[in-house]
Design a protein that fits this description.
heterodimer; A: 308 residues; mainly alpha; ABC transporter involved in vitamin B12 uptake, BtuC; 11 helices; 71% helix; globular; B: 426 residues; Rossmann fold; 7-stranded mixed sheet; 5-stranded parallel sheet; 15 helices; 15 strands; elongated
Chain lengths: 308, 426
Amino acid sequence: MFGDYSVGDLGAIFAMQAFAGLILFSVFVLMALGLAIIFGQMGVINMAHGEFMILGAYVTWMTKTVFQEYLPSLFAGYFFLAMALAFVAAGALGMLVEWTLIRHLYRRPLDTLLATWGLSLILQQAYRSIFGAREVGVELPEWMMGSKHITDTIEVQINGLFVMALTTLITCAVAYIIYWSRWGRQVRAVVQNRVMAGAVGINTEKVDRYTFGLGCGIAGVAGSAFTMIGSTSPTAGQLYIVDTFLVVVFGGAASLVGTIASAFTISQARSTLEFFLSGSMAQVLTLLAIVGILMLRPQGLFTLKVRK
Amino acid sequence: MSHRNGDNSGRRGSGWLTPSRRNILAGIAALPAMSLIPRTSFAEAPATSVVNTTGLAVTDTEVTVGILHSVTGTMAISETGSVEAEKLAIAQINEQGGVLGRKIKFIQEDGASDWPTFAEKAKKLLVNDKCASVMGCWTSASRKAVLPVFEQYNGMLYYPTFYEGLEQSKNVIYTGQEATQQIIAGLDWVTKEKGAKTFYLLGSDYIWPRTSNKIARKHIENHLKTKVVGEEYFPLGSTQFNSVINKIKLTKPDVIYAIIVGGSNVAFYKQLKAAGIDLSKQTLLTISVTEDEIDGIGGENIAGAYACMKYFQSLDNPNNKAFVAAFKKMWGEKTVIGDVTQAAYLGPWLWKLTAEKAGSFDIDKIAAASPGVEFKGAPEGYVRIHENHHLWSKTRVGRARPDGQYDLIYETKDLVEPDPFPKGYQ
């Protein structure tokens, strides 16, 4: 397929393709972070993760509408406020869910699977009743659309850059919170030995609630950012959930590094394969490879050594 | 099997039920008046025993029909418009006195985006509720699920979506376009007007885009003698298109021919725009983006793209203006009307006209009387039912505006004949 192209053309395409892979990588990390925190630290499989993302997307849409209506002069900056609100809304809902639903099920991990799946259906129908079944359009301020023109063939997508920067920022923040902050130490202590952590005076219930809230909040920010590249509808969360689980499971639960490494592997494999094969075939091959690797390493790429 | 059945009844129908010239003239004369003077002629309503010999839910004052769409689940996003259009049509028909002197009462069931549920609800509407007709379904999968039910219990389905063809049944009237109607005229137009020589075919990975692209490829290669430089499918719900956009940049096709649906659509057009592909310079022709979808995509992301279908909300004719005004009055100023919504609106009207032509609600008589039924009040303009139970209709090309509407660029001079089993395209 490369016979007819000049070296310059090919170079440009490879650069673009590498950039596409990086964007996909950032998207995957952003999607998976929230789930990885909840799954890794609490062992809860949050099937409603996608719906928390869509809550973020709807918050963004509402913020947009308010700005368009009342503060058109500040429209250029609404997205930042929208992301903050998305974090707060999704985080608050997450804590509420933890308090009413999840905390009763900690000893029954399979039931949390079922309960959060039920929650995802309830949330979907709630969005449908509140916002309508149709997709809503989230308009971006002018500066966030289009691309930076570098050469005739190389274009750098602004929303791609934005997602990459956001992912880096959030990943660093999460790493700081988990590995360096006092609260992060408490979270890790609870993960390693819940009873002991309780015995030394850590309020494990409170840690659980905030962890769940943090994971959901990050999902909300991810959902808010994805209004730039995807759709906002009651069921759009379902579009992300499979990839998200893939990244988390492949990376090995309970490991931030694992999540990042797995997101990188999957995104590069997928975007390279998509270039040479068709979209469907690329997904099939990626999935097969992941299944193969997981058969050899059921615990995923990276794992924490925890005394059981 | 279903195909054979449909064929036979169609041929029989066309023989002895050709509308007489007087009927046509009367129809033309009545049409302008139709929307002005409600025809409340209850006194003339024919006796129930005459119009209903098979035990349908018809009383002296009422006739029951079913509405069967998804109002929950993933398809609700698309099917909401159809439900709204059908309810509007039923309300308007009732205002004018109903069908054969009887008001239409509807029973709505939710297919819940789940195909077995569609089949179950179809059976309920036919067996328990004895609906005289059913307006419903959207995806081909749901239609395929209910088709055996409609054939077994002898019901009548009015199906609104443009679809891949390769089907025909005595028990279904297809009010949307089948694939060749939608595809061929558009490809001819883009070749003639834009001098297109190379095409890149894209689609979501399921039956409709695949069948449609197959027809497109055959037409491009065998009839237009031009070239397909790429063909790609993405799983439904796919949200990442950067790789294929790079491939498009590399192959520089004259036309991107896109049949992507659902949430993927939004992702595709947003990423296309972000990647710097300017649709005012790069020709993109789609058959899957109606005004409904643009609402989600955002007009600014798709402005400049061409769409090929049979109806646009912006069509400038008196029927359409009245329809759009009535629709907005009933469902809100902000709602938009896409191709399928309009096709769904045709369903109740065509059924009413057919029942009046047949002088009966009996399914067999409706099926036999359908070929040749004309609806001059259609928002898209005059339509007529073909012997194969699809509609003769015009094909149009529109260009997307930033405000989410289409400008009409081209329409076929004549009605395009529906051909669900196109020879040389399979």
